[in-house]
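Quick board copy: two proteins, each given as sequence then tokens.
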Amino acid sequence: MKKLFIGFIFLLLSVGPVSGIPSAGAQSDEPEGGTVVCAPGVYPEQTNDCLLAGPSAYLAEMEALGFTFPPRPLLKTRPDPSLSNLPFLYFRLDEEDVPQLTGPAGGQNGQIFPAGFVYVTYVDRVDTGKGIYYMLESGAWIAGQGARVSEISAFQGLEFRSTPHNPFGWAFEYIPVKKAPGYNTPETGRYLYPFVDLLQVYDTKSMDGVDWNLIGSNEWVEARKVAIVTPKDNPPEGMTGNRWIDVDLAEQTLAVYDNNEIVFATVIASGLEPFYTRPGLFQIYEKKETENMRNSDLTDFYYLDRVPWTMYFDKARALHGAYWRTRFGYPQSHGCVNLSVGDAHWLYNWANVGDFVFVYDTTGQTPTDPALYKDWAY
């Protein structure tokens, strides 16, 4: 560890001016008055023996932001990947009326799936040579007008053994890391890949009209392309107990607190305008391992078979797995909090009926008027 620290200091002194750090050859080693600049290191208090400047000042500044050399690791683990497994076969119908049949290439049984956003589960698939047909769980058949769901998102959040000291999160786009805030600043040559690496945020600055996050020594990324969890010190006002589910609509993240400590965090997809996820403090009132979801509005019809790991908390708005989603980090739903199947399964195992769900939007852009929120959602 000491060798790594000393190596970093030599690197700082060899690269020249970085974020206000003077180079080794600059005339700052002995400023006017004869005071000697402190040797590189972190000084918890101002010392009278030397001047806190140069590399030592930079290290102290970063230490105050929570960045240590080397960086403090997060006590995290990946959940069991088998949580993402589902025992169902799914098929998405084309967005047109699809009649149900009495058999492969058989006659209609009088039922149809209206045009819309429709996913069904099937138990058999038959190629008649003149077309492919799928047998539904009900025993009815449909023509293969659509596409099978060949795979679901394998993304999962992370379990934590203790609450991180700093905000943390995931990039949900492929983005370059900059040496300073701003679109026109040099790049470091490093790139963040969507949902691959967990990053910590040590500072935020505004440049070019947008916020930029400091994620390492002279490493900055555009904040709006990162889904961030900001740890909380206290439970939301109005709730009892010390365990709750924290849903940040602005960041599209979810954190789970148990005994006031973060034990799990991930990225979500909440309601897209005008089908917002309503801000407020709620409680889980029902849990269902699978649920069939639909609405009767034929202008915006949806039907979803076997939605896994559903936890209702606000009328028909629920936390649940979304096998039809391949990306998270953006509002996309009809009001529910969509999670990957693995994340929903983890949350379902942890949550109890009566647990609190705190939904909020730090930007204040999500309306709170109850009249805007319908009883149905997905």
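And the next:
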Amino acid sequence: MDTPRKHEKYDALIRACQGLVPVRTAVVHPCDETSLAAAIAAADAKLIEPLLVGPQVRIRALAASLGLDLTGLRLIDVPHSHAAAEKAVALVHAAEADALMKGSLHTDELMAEVVRKDTGLRTSRRISHVFIMDVPTYAKPLFITDGSVNIFPSLEDKADIVQNAIHLAHALGIALPKVAILSALETITSKLPSTIDAAALCKMAERGQITGAILDGPLALDNAINRDAAVLKHLTSAVAGDADILVVPDLEAGNLLAKELTFLANADAAGIVLGARVPIILTSRADSVRVHMASCAVAALYARAQSASGPP
């Protein structure tokens, strides 16, 4: 029998949204059980004000089959998933939506509209994804970036990836996040380019090119999240053993790490895309409703911070 998952860290994020105005969120093609149920649950929890963008007949039929009440929710009828992605982006441009939420369509289909040069939602900063992990064996939420958008990020891309994650941590109440730049080693060698990138990112932080956090790297995963491992390696660092944010070398490493934690450590992985004009709630169709709600809470907190400080 599977061990029931606890969600203390996610519950804390949802509680932090109490009293906030629900974020107007275009839910893109919510045509499967989890995405539609999650949108309604998040609306009931006053995390989001959903705009359901997709084939109206299909959405209503799905809701009826699941016993879900769509009363009071706005449905925007479009014929298919591609049209839903296009319309959702247009709603942001029309100032009718302050966030996007992926439904039952492929990530590439949604992101293609987000990054489109003429009509998309790009800003001056690189778009990146952050997993917000609830790991039962770790004392606090663990951010992993980027495991979904940037395949082989350059040094400059990584600087934006780090800064995006720092801004998210600030929005979630972490005043000075600890950022571990991961590699396979904690020593710098030209044979492993990710160690050089890690060292460069730390120097960029020293020179004010990355702000708002403490950076250290290269760090191997064990000494980034385990104090005993850091002590054994004789690492004197405020980050080692106590990281809030793990910056991975590339998408493969980040995706593997998040899924290993999910399936081997009983963790949950909420997800959000940053660096666009609005936050994008990006989760897997296999994720639970609770994980979707946690992602909505993260987006709500980030949107509040973004409205206070202006877009990236």
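Board note added afterward: The chain has two domains: 1-123+276-312, 126-275.
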